[in-house]
Amino acid sequence: IAKEVAKLLEMKAELGADEGKHKFVLKTPKGTRDFGPKEMAIRERAFRAIIACFKRHGAEVIDTPVFELKETLTGKYGEDSKLIYDLKDQGGELLSLRYDLTVPFARYLAMNKITNIKRYHIAKVYRRDNPAMTRGRYREFYQCDFDIAGQFDPMIPDAECLKIVHEILSDLQLGDFVIKVNDRRILDGMFAVCGVPDSKFRTICSSVDKLDKVPWEEVRSEMVGEKGLSPEAADHIGEYVQLHGGLDLIERLLRDPKLSQNKLAREGLGDMKLLFEYLRLFGITGKISFDLSLARGLDYYTGVIFEAVLLQQDPEHGEEPLSVGSVAGGGRYDGLVGMFDPKGRKVPCVGVSIGIERIFSILEQRLEAAEEKIRTTETQVLVASAQKKLLEERLKLISELWDAGIKAEILYKKNPKLLNQLQYCEDTGIPLVAIVGEQELKDGVVKLRIVATREEVNVRRESLVEEIRIRTSQC
Amino acid sequence: IAKEVAKLLEMKAELGADEGKHKFVLKTPKGTRDFGPKEMAIRERAFRAIIACFKRHGAEVIDTPVFELKETLTGKYGEDSKLIYDLKDQGGELLSLRYDLTVPFARYLAMNKITNIKRYHIAKVYRRDNPAMTRGRYREFYQCDFDIAGQFDPMIPDAECLKIVHEILSDLQLGDFVIKVNDRRILDGMFAVCGVPDSKFRTICSSVDKLDKVPWEEVRSEMVGEKGLSPEAADHIGEYVQLHGGLDLIERLLRDPKLSQNKLAREGLGDMKLLFEYLRLFGITGKISFDLSLARGLDYYTGVIFEAVLLQQDPEHGEEPLSVGSVAGGGRYDGLVGMFDPKGRKVPCVGVSIGIERIFSILEQRLEAAEEKIRTTETQVLVASAQKKLLEERLKLISELWDAGIKAEILYKKNPKLLNQLQYCEDTGIPLVAIVGEQELKDGVVKLRIVATREEVNVRRESLVEEIRIRTSQC
């Protein structure tokens, strides 16, 4: 087979190459984009806030390869598996690009027999989804993951994950948000008491997961039509999934005659109550909503699940604010590491993933609206000359500055005009110009020009580094 | 064809899946590795030094997708093209993982019609090479690239690239090194005067490139045997490629009766002389060697090329120090952007790529030898309790600390033993413990323990944040 495939692929490649000559396309692959210097400045600002939070919570950092053995990803994502990018079989192992950072993390734990770690991981993941780039949905995108692995007392690490989401979203000032919380055990208990057969739990869960995008009627008809659920069971689910609230709702459901009879639901609701207690101590219950419609698509969750959504800035008076999109999600996955361990040893885990692309879009739009000029370099000084034939002197001076740790540039011209050199500083935001001229060289000084004020001072050459440091210390 | 391929691939996948069940392998793909917290600490240390240098030279930063359209990479790498990773054809565009950061950079410039930029890019690249992981050769590895694009006066940006390599290698204290420099025009001129036909320039250049790994005799027999070069031409090349030196050698070759007759060689040698003049002003000629055996494998270079190699630490008396491997390389590629521009408009570029994996290996070995303990978190304080039933108080206190920007942890236990909490600080290097107890709560204080000295002081709760900041300000 391999030979046949190779032959056919070769024939195809030849055809492809021929086509290529006729219409060469200058673009990035579908669903991906470049980050230019401006976008990078915004991206790094967001990363700084996120990393600061992860470090504040004592996390270590790890990294894993961008691809995994195909079999490592198999059977972890349920219906989403079709979105995985595979690599071409070029001989050797079958590989796939990572779909998230959670499965590689679980593989890492099992492989290194780690039973206890708190780590973050910021890296790109890949999904062959239909991109909607204006809304921040890409095929290549960053995830910023924080996870706590280990056997601990219930809900303490879970509460910390929610605290982290709350800190990051507050810190980035993205506007109002709500963190929806649910528990897979409550969902499964609910499915059981509604009469969903065990074998349909996961697929019905996938249907419920669509409720943030499509109305209940559509989800119901998928359950009944495509997935063969009885209309009564669907309607019963429909009653539960419109419920959301706080501690009051948890307590109401704990008294619910049907749900309270189900062991899983009871466990989930008990832990949910404990979680709310811890969140109260953290002072963040105001932004938390226990929401029975939250399901999360991925197969591997086993307990608490959550998702943070940004809310519309100015809702109409009296109406509930609309959600404008999910920016973080996560939950507990106690079984995933065990799937990799040869002896099935489990390592309980809970974690959160911050989806940075939508956050970028918002930060970008805001900066554009504010017409704030972002500097894309940190250069402190341009080494310039007022006369010709001073390239050697410029090179000598800039070399001294670099060696002293000063961020410095020159124009790559033998005899640049002073005006062009000053204009370059205006354009790029360089605050100082160190000007060498024949007179200055004779006097052992450098003329330092402050771009903003056009002030010029002669500085002795041996004091120049110190003078530049002082004058740019706030940069 | 596509249908047939799909069918065959499907059959194959089924077979593959069956095999998978029998022997599940827990590993990262061949030639790749995870970075645990310790390795990440080392990696980030190296990145910090490299990024600081790039910023000191006024570079902006960009990022591009990890894969490109397959045709973007086609015809750019010569004989190395066979090492490119392709993605599986899952419908839609044909994609390949990037092989370096230079071709994506050129694509980015052409696509955005940028004629003038100085940027760095630090990212992973992919090569289906034979891995030699103990020597730092991987299939997935980082490149740290700095490039200057634009029409400038000769050799000024080129000299800056070499200065950057010199700064980074000095800064990282990797031991003695030499930066070999040559020029593709000198090589091509040399090939011409040695009687190599034009059509064989690139392939003979690839042979010369192997001289750092295999002896001349082997390279010669490849030229004559495999590549059909006349033995006379090969021997003539052999005489040139053993030459290396400084300004003296450049001037000798400028007077070489044959080479000086060749226009390309004359241009290359003239620019090489200018380059050495600028490097003298930068004070770095001591580490630079003009070396006629340096060829660089990639097709796209058009002018200056260079490669930095680390030297054996303690060479035998009187012997030349042995090279222990290349850690940086680069050169001028004035034609690459034009290959992407629909109208063939050229943007001259020169750049350097720091290969970080070998540097990691060296830093890792050195740290291991020094038995230095590296902290993998930045946690300033552990919030602990001496008695039972104080989880709520711990959660309240740590929440206050987090909100004040203090890096703090707790153990995720309801009633942890004090000894275990102190041990955790010893193990992870946390310098302070904030202990809440019933008496302290009554008195409105927190007991702050300094782990290193075992000293304990009572601090008023409202002064705790300030006290922690002062005591960890050197961290």
From TrEMBL, chains A, B:
Coiled coil, from the record: 360-387
Which residues of the sequence carry a binding annotation for L-histidine?
D100, L101, T102, R127, Q143, D147, R296, Y300, Y301
Enzyme's top EC category: ligase
- Identify the Gene3D superfamilies for this entry: Anticodon-binding domain, Bira Bifunctional Protein, Domain 2
Write the record's keywords in alphabetical order, separated by commas. Aminoacyl-tRNA synthetase, ATP-binding, Coiled coil, Ligase, Nucleotide-binding, Protein biosynthesis
What SUPFAM superfamilies does the record point to? Class II aaRS ABD-related, Class II aaRS and biotin synthetases
Q: Which InterPro entries match?
A: aa-tRNA-synth_II (IPR006195), aa-tRNA-synth_II/BPL/LPL (IPR045864), Anticodon-bd (IPR004154), Anticodon-bd_dom_sf (IPR036621), His-tRNA-ligase (IPR015807), HisRS-like_core (IPR041715), HisRS/HisZ (IPR004516), HisRS_anticodon (IPR033656)
Ranges of residues in domain Aminoacyl-transfer RNA synthetases class-II family profile: 31-363
The family classification in the record reads: Belongs to the class-II aminoacyl-tRNA synthetase family.
Recorded catalytic activity of this chain's protein: tRNA(His) + L-histidine + ATP = L-histidyl-tRNA(His) + AMP + diphosphate + H(+)
Protein's name in the database: histidine--tRNA ligase
